[in-house]
Amino acid sequence: MSRHTALTRRCLVSMVGGAAPMLVALATACRRPGAQTESALKVGPSAVRRGTQITLHVRTGTEADTLEERLPLFEQQLGIKVNMESFPGGEYYQKIQTLITAGSLGDVLWGASATGTGHLWAYSGVIRFLDDLIRAEKFDLNQYYPSAVDGVKFEGKVYGLPFKLQPGPMGIYYNIDAFEQAGATPPDLNTTFDQLVELAKRTQRQDGDTVTRWGFFPTGRNPGYQWVVHYVRAWGGDVISDDGRKSQLSTPQAMGALEWYWTLITGHRVAPTGKNMQNADFVKGQVAMLQSGSWSKSLPTQVRDAFRIGNTLMPRGPSGRRGSMAVTDFIAINAKTKNVPESWELTKFLTDRETGIRLGEGRGGASGTSGARPDVFHSERLLANPLHKVWIEAAETAMNLKLPWNFLGEEHQSVLNARMNPIIDGDQAPTRAYLQEVDRELQAVLDKPRP
C-alpha cells in the first residue's frame, strides 16, 4: 500500500453517515493530496472500450429504481456493463466508507452536498476532479443551474456533475379540501408570514382541547441545517459566514426568525410542538399546510383520493427573499478508477435531461426531486404535475450552499439540532442569551482544523 493510499484511508476511516458526526477524529498525519495532473486521456464515446464493466454505487429506492430503467439503454449504446450496487439511504455513507477503507470502492458513485461529503471526498482524494475531462470535451456546464454547479466545486474545481437540485424546505403543501371547508383562500406566492398565521388559524380544527387538524406543520424534532437556514435567510441573516468559519446564529436576524417560530407554536398555537406531534400527519388529513421540499411532490401517491393537494412557496421574509439553500446531489468518479472514459460517459448519462425528468416524475419510488437542469425543470412532462411549477422559481432563485470549512457538517448539524429541539419543544425561548450559547457551541465545531 502506498503512503498516499494509507493516509487517505486514515483520513476517512472516521467518516460515517446518517445522524452521526461525519468526522469524529482524524489522524494528524493526514495530508491533502497534491493537485491532479492534466490527463492525456481521450474522452467521448470513441474512447470507450466496449465490453468494459464498471461499478456504480447509489441509494436504494430513492434513485436506484429509476436508474435501473435507464441503464439498459446506456449499456446498449456504449457496450459498457454497469454493475449497480445500492445501499439504504441511512446506511449509504457508512457502506461507502467501508469500501473506501477496504480499497474496493467502485468506479462511479452518488453523493450529496448537504453536509459537505463531496467536499471531503474531493479534499481527501477519494473522488476525481473532472476539470480536465470537461476541458478536453468542451463539456457545457451551463446545462445545469449555476447554483448546482457551485455546489459541486471545491476550491474552484469541479468534483462531480449535478444529478439533482433541491433548494430546501421552502414549499407549502396544502389540503385544498380543508381550505374549502374553512371558506379560506389557500396561500400563494404573495402570502406573507403574518397572513400564513391567519390562514393556519382559520383551517385549524379542535375537539375540546384536542387538535384534530393543525393549521401548519413546519418541522419535527432534529430539524436539520437546511430548515434553520431557510428561516434565518428569510429574515436576512445566515447560520454561518461565507467562508464557513464563523457561526452567526445570535444575530438580530436569526433571533427574529426563531422568535416568529416560537410565537407560532407557543402563542398562536397553530403548529405542534416537538412533544405534541402524534396527531400531525399531513397524509392522514391532520394538517392543513405542510412545510416541505421538492421531495414531497410525490405526496398525491400517498394521499390518493382522500383529499386534493395544492402547493406554493413559503413567504418572503423581512429580507424580501424566500429562505433557501441549493443542495446538489451529484455523480462522481473514483479517483483510482482505471476506467476513466467509461466512468465519464456514465456520469454524463446519469445527469442528462431524460434521467433528470424521470427523477422529477417520481418514477420507481423516486422522491420527485428533479435533475439539476433548466431543461428538466421546464419540461412539459414535469409541468403536467401541478405541484411542480412552483419549484421552477425555487430552483432559479435558490441561494448558494454554505458549509463548515473543515468538513464537519454532520457534527455542526448535530449540535444545531440538539440546541434547536428545546425551542421546537416549546421549552426554551430563542432569547439572545440562549442563541449566544448556541453560537459558542457551534463556533467550537467551526474552530476545529481540517484533517
Can you lay out the helices and strands and say which pair or pack?
Elements: H1 3-12, E1 53-59, H2 64-78, E2 81-87, H3 92-102, E3 108-112, H4 117-123, H5 131-137, H6 146-150, E4 153-154, E5 157-158, E6 161-166, E7 171-175, H7 176-182, H8 193-203, E8 205-207, E9 210-213, H9 225-234, H10 252-268, E10 289-292, H11 299-303, E11 309-313, E12 327-333, H12 340-350, H13 353-360, H14 374-377, H15 380-383, H16 390-397, H17 409-424, H18 432-446
Helix pairs in contact: 9-10, 17-18
Structure summarized in a few sentences:
It contains 18 helices and 12 strands.
Give structural notes.
The protein has helices at 3-12, 64-78, 92-102, 117-123, 131-137, 146-150, 176-182, 193-203, 225-234, 252-268, 299-303, 340-350, 353-360, 374-377, 380-383, 390-397, 409-424, 432-446; strands at residues 53-59, 81-87, 108-112, 153-154, 157-158, 161-166, 171-175, 205-207, 210-213, 289-292, 309-313, 327-333. By secondary structure, the chain is of the alpha+beta class. Strands 2-1-3-12-6 form a five-stranded mixed beta sheet. Strands 10-7-11 form a three-stranded antiparallel beta sheet. α9 (225-234) crosses α10. The protein is globular.
List keywords for this structure.
alpha+beta, 18 helices, disordered N terminus, three-stranded antiparallel beta sheet, single chain, 451 residues, globular
Q: Kindly state the mean pLDDT as a whole number?
A: 90
Percent range of helical residues = 25-40%
Q: SS-based structural class? A: alpha+beta
Q: Please state the CA-atom Rg, rounded to the nearest Å.
A: 23 Å
Amino-to-carboxy terminus distance: 20 Å
Beta content comes to 5-15%
Instruction: Trace the largest sheet across and list its strands.
Output: 2-1-3-12-6
Major beta-sheet overview: 5 strands, mixed
Number of helices: 18
Report the principal-axis shape: globular
Q: Outline the low-pLDDT stretches.
A: 1-39
Order of helices and strands: HEHEHEHHHEEEEHHEEHHEHEEHHHHHHH
